[in-house]
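Thread title: Can someone regenerate the structure for this chain?

I was given the following input by a collaborator and told the matching structure tokens would be attached. They weren't. Posting the sequence so someone can regenerate them.
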Amino acid sequence: MLYLVFSVCCSVLVSVLLKLAPRQRLDMAQVVTWNYLLASVLSLVLLRPSLASLHAPHAPWLALLGLAVTLPAIFLVMAQAVTRAGIVRSDVAQRLSLLLSLLAAFLVFGETANGWKLAGLGLGLLAIVGITVRPRGAAAAAAPDGQRAWPWLLGVWVGYAAVDIMLKQVALSGTPSMAALTASFALAFVLMLGVQLWRHASGTARLHWRNLGAGALLGLLNFGNILFYVRAHQHLPESPAVVFAGMNIGVVVLGALVGVFAFGERTSVWNRVGLGLAVVAIGLIAWGTAG
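Best answer:
Regenerated them for you:
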């Protein structure tokens, strides 16, 4: 279970870094770019994925390219959500993206729907409504330019679900998940590096060393989240539902504690109800998956 704890901590620390980035005047696009450089290198060195499957005729390059575009995009959306809505609500929205993934599993991938999963889906949708409600008095502090937070929360919800659906498509092609992630990280870095070089050359945003340092830290946490989650599944091969529930519920609970007590984030009654419903929904879906 120690691997699961480490994975949860890495995930929440990513949100903390995104929360602190504006205070340090970091350029998030540059930070995300360097994050994928380190993540791809660490994946190659530590996970040593077999890349032979990427040369096969059925290699899902369209899905991999989609991941290379969506992964950095959703990171930038998550950064905006954390800044405007806070860690508490953003982490809940991220983890509840499994609802859309579950719906896609029923409608597209032919997964069997049972009562537990459907109950979790229903409660999860109610939880999404609860967390998108803006706490009174927190709007000015969270979004000084007057922009609402809920579009960014919904963007997180939909974006992470899109990533999960593309990963399912990759898995159906027979490509190992670690090889697919490594390829996606490398492609994401190449695409984002091209964007940053253009921004630098055009004078839009100059490259700066501090963004490289922050990107390295983000990449370390991003990769650590994946590595420890994989190790948790390897050490609990008979309990995948426990790992799944522990990861998602752990991030929701720890994110809430960090957001409230470390950053003084305000939550409304509806937000707290939504958080509670999210925990129950994740538990029901995990129970239904185990059954």
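The chain has twelve helices and no strands.
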